[in-house]
Fold this protein.
Amino acid sequence: MSSEDLERYRTHEPENLQERFAHRAAHMKPSEIRSLFAVAPRPEIVSLAGGMPNLTALPMDLFASIVENLVREHGQEALQYGSGQGHPKLREQICDVMALEGIRANPDDVLVTTGSQQALDLISRIFIDPGDVVLVEAPSYVGALGTFAQYEASVVHVEMDQDGLVPEALRQAIKTLRYQGRRIKFLYLIPNYQNPAGVLLPAERRSEILDICRAEKIFIVEDNPYGLLGFDRPSPNAMRAEDSENVIYLGSFSKTIAPGFRIGWALVPQALREKLVIASESSILCPSNFSQMAISSYLADQPWRDQITSFCGLYKARRDAMLESLDTHFPKSATWTRPAGGFYVWITLPPEIDTKAMMPKAIAAKVAYVPGTAFYADGLGSWSLRLSYCHPTPERIRDGVKALSGVVNQEIERRSGLALN
Ligand SMILES: Cc1ncc(COP(=O)(O)O)c(C=O)c1O
């Protein structure tokens, strides 16, 4: 390569790069959350933005000894390739974990994935042709929206309220879409302590939604990373516990153990299993044996249920700090959810406030959040925002909410001044 070419290579995109990409690359865009992660780690900023689990309660010495023992005693297996579907022992243990939410499953129907995010990718790959409809809650998980967009789905949001997805709104959406001749591939929802809204879908609604989707022959993708993180009582049984034919269930150890292992899973109806395993093998060959065996050893020998209880205590204290500060400082014209578990509070401001435009002012006031538009595929949500309480200390959460309330109050005043002029 000549020095001119080298210089061109360093400083410019290769010629016609965009044209050389596949058509689908145009749908690969950075999420709003990704750009926030660039500022959020600055120590002076209280980040109420990311959904990173709080690992301060994790017994690191214990994990150090698990990992050391794994390499010394089982290195030949742990550092080797493994089964494409996942380690057989871990798949059995995953069934024990799911039993806590009422699911009776066969390990043969479990596919271990690289986080549940990979399962979302695999399901999208198998089901979505460009233009196919995926139904999601309004708002919904940004990582799922990004994946659906890459497969060129047409994402249709369905109304939620304080109790999660509204069954009647789902009925109406399906009716309208069917009338328009659209192909609906699945309903994606997060019934427990939803990301981003923090709400919990009650048992009766679960049954009603299952009935609607079964009758309409629409698969349900039940994404449940937060189900065991209920603060005062266990969450209702998983939807998959009621329907093993029509529900694809996604689980993850990211929030109950640690996301660094990157171990999640899909529990799939038998008819889908082979396709999913083949799809996964073609993307990763097999999930990490090392991570799976570390988690398996932890689940086999350690009091993991107690560990989840201690996570719940830690998150509950943070949830309380956030709700108390919101009650104290936020304007009466704002509303917010009161999560019974999980990581997130969803705030709705007066409609004239644009939370994306407000973001630089919040950063200047040393607090970060995620603007509501990140959680919609259709540009809605501009006067909402997500706060997460999982990571900072309760003191920092109080400081952050107070700082944010100052920004919000100023913005409301400024807007009402504009309206008067
Ligand atoms: C609703 C939801 N689904 C899936 C994921 C991805 O989790 P994992 O770490 O298992 O890939 C997240 C992560 O925040 C999430 O909130």
